Amino acid sequence: MFEKCEAIVMRTVDYGETNKIVTLFTREWGKVAAMARGAKKPSSRLSAVTQPLAYGHYLVRRSRGVGLLHQGELIDSMRALREDLFAAAYAAYIVELTDKSTEEQKRNPYLFELLLQTLQYMSEGRDLEIMTFIYEMKMLSVLGIPPVLDRCARCGATEGRFSFSVKEAGFLCHRCEAADPHRFSLSPASARLLRLFYHLDLARLGAISVKEGTKAELRAVLSSYYDEYAGLSLKAKRFLEQIAELKDKLDLGGERET
Ligand SMILES: [Zn+2]
Asked: How far away, in angstroms, is 231 Cα from ligand 1 center?
């Protein structure tokens, strides 16, 4: 039985001369793998709908292992994300993060919507790094490692000056900061943004403009927190770091600011 689903192509792997095995992240069933026969041929009607990041409706026969992809209809090819080196690198990272954080056939419509909306914002030219920070913050609850952001993780105080402790998994007030010599100092802007990104309804995202210094603080906190707790090794992350260095060297930092 073929069933219709709405999906984003997470990755593909060639199979034989002409086929591809496509990993779809579907709104209906979570992650599923399906064989797309003939999809490697440019003339195939499956060629465009099986490109990585393609978003569309698909007809799939599911099975325990690899199902069968019968047909697809593009809603958005996300071409803007594939044609820009920086956008492609950030998009690949959030897709791989999602892929590594999810099991097959485990439905999660919240996460589907989050990924779709983030990719769409990126393809509309929103700040790639900010979108990635928001996605990373929201993924922490999906991964089951939410940080404490509304009070001091140690004493519970809600007033004071806060830093971020990876060890304590959240904010530390100035009274408790000696408990973690490796804590990250936070500007008030960074503390506010970490909270905002975590709680924000992505559908209502307004214009956000963030200074480079604040971005550096957020980058350091998130990177260290993921290294400590997420237990993920992501190829796309290393590529992203190289790309970010390149971007600094080329001084293209301001070009995609929103
Ligand atoms: Zn405290």
From this structure: 27
Ligand 1 geometric centre to CA of 154 (Å): 5
Distance (Å, whole) CA 8 – CA 29: 12
CA of 41 to the centre of ligand 1 (A): 61
Between the CA of 225 and the centroid of ligand 1 the distance, in Å, is 19
Residue 67, helix vs strand vs coil: strand
Is residue 99 classed as helix, strand or coil in its secondary structure?
Answer: helix
Whether 258 has a pLDDT exceeding 50, the answer reads: no
- Contact status, residue 51 vs residue 58, Cβ threshold 8 Å: no
**Mean pLDDT estimate for the chain:** 94
* pLDDT tens-digit map of 183-222: 999 999 999 999 999 999 999 998 889 999 999 999 999 9
CA 184 to ligand 1 centroid distance, Å? 15
